[in-house]
Amino acid sequence: MPEYTHKMLLALSVGIVGITFAMDAASANPANCAKRPVMVEKLNERFGESPQSTGLTPSGQIIEVFAHPGTGTWTILLTLPDGTSCMMASGQAYERLNKPAGHAT
């Protein structure tokens, strides 16, 4: 797998945040939404994915990255304050970056 730089990760993070703020959660495909416990169970059962990181938006939504470090699959969930989670993106080639907090390159 290629090694990503901190700048590339930052650009990806900014892009994800931008997409999140630009997207109206109500317009998410209902077929990709369910209560969070159901979504978490499905991601674990189908793909072996587990939570890897999380963040809170200013509007009270939770963004989570689920991944399987062995297979490289990943999924981004957006959870609304009412507990509904929607799959926002998924893919392959997940790579965990072990950078200390506050570390910039």
Structure description:
With 105 residues, the protein is an alpha+beta fold. It has a domain at 29-91. The protein is 28% helix and 29% strand. The chain has 2 helices and 5 strands, in the order H-E-H-E-E-E-E. Strands 1-5-4-3-2 form a 5-stranded antiparallel sheet, covered by helices on one side. The longest helix is centred in the N-terminal third of the chain and has 17 residues, at 6-22. The protein is flat.
Overall pLDDT metric = 79
Radius of gyration from the alpha-carbon trace, in angstroms: 14 Å
Question: Given the helix and strand composition, which structural class is it?
Answer: alpha+beta
**Gap between N and C termini, in Å?**
20 Å
Number of strands: 5
Portion of residues in helices?
Answer: 25-40%
Q: How do the SSEs run, as a string of H and E?
A: HEHEEEE
Main sheet makeup: 5 strands, antiparallel
* Continuous helix count: 2
What is the topology, as strand order, of the major beta sheet?
Answer: 1-5-4-3-2
Shape: flat
Please indicate the percent range of residues in DSSP E strands (runs of 2 or more): 25-35%
Q: Which regions are unreliable across 5 or more consecutive residues at pLDDT < 50?
A: 1-12, 17-22
